[in-house]
Structures are given as C-alpha cells and as structure tokens.
TrEMBL record:
Its EC number is 2.7.7.56. This is Ribonuclease PH. Belongs to the RNase PH family. It is an enzyme of class 2 (transferase). GO terms for molecular function: 3'-5'-RNA exonuclease activity; tRNA binding; tRNA nucleotidyltransferase activity. Pfam families: RNase_PH, RNase_PH_C. NCBIfam families: RNasePH. Transmembrane segments: none annotated. SUPFAM superfamilies: Ribonuclease PH domain 2-like, Ribosomal protein S5 domain 2-like. Residues 10-140, 159-223 form the Exoribonuclease phosphorolytic domain.
Amino acid sequence: MRPSGRKLDELRSVFIETGVTKHAEGSCLIRMGDTHVLCTATIEDKAPPFLKNTGLGWVTAEYGMLPRATNSRTRREAAAGKQTGRTQEIQRLIGRALRAGVDRSALGERQIVIDCDVIQADGGTRCASITGGWVALRLAVNKLLKAGVIVSDPIIDHVAAVSCGIYAGQPVLDLDYVEDSSAGTDGNFILTGSKRLIEVQMSAEGATFSRAEMGELLDLADKGVEALVAAQKAAVA
C-alpha cells in the first residue's frame, strides 16, 4: 500500500488553471497533488545573440522555489547571491524538454521564456514545471498566431513529464515526497504527446534495478503522460 493510498499506477490529482496572471502572454497554475507550480511565458521580440540572422527562435526556462514551499524555510537564492547547482540543472532540463516540442524555424527570431515558480513542493516539481510550462507556452504561441505575428504553428507536439520509481519493491507512478525520499530507484520521464522519449533521468538511490524493471517504469510513464496530455488539452481548449 502506498502512503497516499493510491494504486501503483495512479497519478496524484491533476488540476491546471490558466490565465492566472495579468501580464504574462501565457500562464497557468498546475497542481499535482500537493505540488503546486506557477508557470508563466514571456515573449521577447529577439532571439539570443548566438541565433542572430539564423531565422531560428529559442525557448528557455527559469526555475525557482519559494522559501516556504517546503517544510522548513529555504533561503532565497537571490539573497545567497547565486543559484544552486540543482536549480541550474532543473531549469536547463525544462528548457531542453520544451524545445523538443517546438519547430524553432516557425517560431522565428524571438525567444519565449518560461518561468516556473514552485509555490508548494511535495515531490515531482520539475515534472510539474515541464507539464505546466508547456501549457503556458501553448497559450503564448496562440497569441502570436492570433495576432498574425507568425503564420505557422511552431508547436509540433505536447510535452509532459512524470516521475516513476521503485518504492517498497514495487514500481509506482508519480512519486510524492514520502515515496521519493525512500525509493530504491527513482526517475523522471519526459515524453511527447505521441509518446516519443525526450529525456529519461534514472538512478539507483538505494537499490540497483534491472532492464525489466526499467521497462515497467517506462510503461507507467507512458500511462501517466497520456493522462497529463489529456489534462493539458482540456486546459487550453
């Protein structure tokens, strides 16, 4: 039995509320159980300097966690004067993941910045950020299309992410903090809506895992991402 009472292949409850900020070109608040992330998309009219005169656009991301997103207060990274390695790794992951679902030539020489701010953390913050970040990106691109700034939709597929792991000897879907902190193996799976793999992060935290077990986790990720894509579609409909 999982601590939450969920079935082995059951996601936490997923809610995506759009249009939650006034100024951003795209925004949503995604709630996956007790993990809540605010995602906003900002359109900038020029691409980074390294893409000048290439005709290609760029999607990038920034990630942060509010001081009381967790049980005890975490000092703001701005107050410390630098980002942690964890923060840098996560925001690069979000950017890579979302770019995989975009035709950068159709986007043109502009940049869309996805900001993901964790309001409350209970495991899976990077996965929630990617899933919600895609919704914010979709909404921002819709504005470009509606205004006639671009004529071809640069978004080629949905992008969503979910965690899976081996907890108490059983493969489980969508780990919360209690499971994640004691799982023998855990991983993050990023897939497109057509179930093409973008990135897999897996590690043995307390016990090694077999190819067969990895296959079971991939099957769980397929199921989880299918449900998350359905939630994305409902949010932007």
